[in-house]
Specification:
The protein has about 70 residues and is an alpha+beta fold. It is built from one helix and four strands, in the order ββββα. It has a four-stranded antiparallel beta sheet, with no helix packed on it. The termini are far apart. It binds zinc ion.
C-alpha cells in the first residue's frame, strides 16, 4: 500500500507533506496518515483505503475525499 509523499492543500494550494512515518510492515487499510501544509500550516488527516492503491499519486483524489467528507 502506497500513500503519496505530498498532497496539494485545498485551502491555499501549496504542498502538504506527509508527517506520519510509515509502519514497518507498510501502510494498511484503515491507517491514519497526517499531512502538514507548509502554506497555511493546516494538518490533514486521511485514512488509507483500498482506492488509494497504485503508484500514481493521481489515484489519490484528495479533493474528492474532502467533498465526500463534507457531505457526511
Ligand atoms: Zn494550506
Amino acid at each position: 500500500m502506497e500513500v503519496p509523499e505530498k498532497i496539494t492543500c485545498v485551502d491555499c494550494g501549496q504542498d502538504a507533506h506527509l508527517i506520519t512515518y510509515p509502519p514497518e510492515e507498510g501502510w494498511q487499510i484503515g491507517d491514519y496518515v497526517a499531512y502538514r501544509c507548509r502554506g497555511c500550516n493546516d494538518r490533514w488527516d486521511l485514512v488509507v483505503d483500498e482506492n488509494d492503491s497504485g503508484t500514481a499519486s493521481d489515484s489519490f483524489d484528495f479533493r474528492q475525499w474532502l467533498k465526500d467528507r463534507e457531505k457526511k
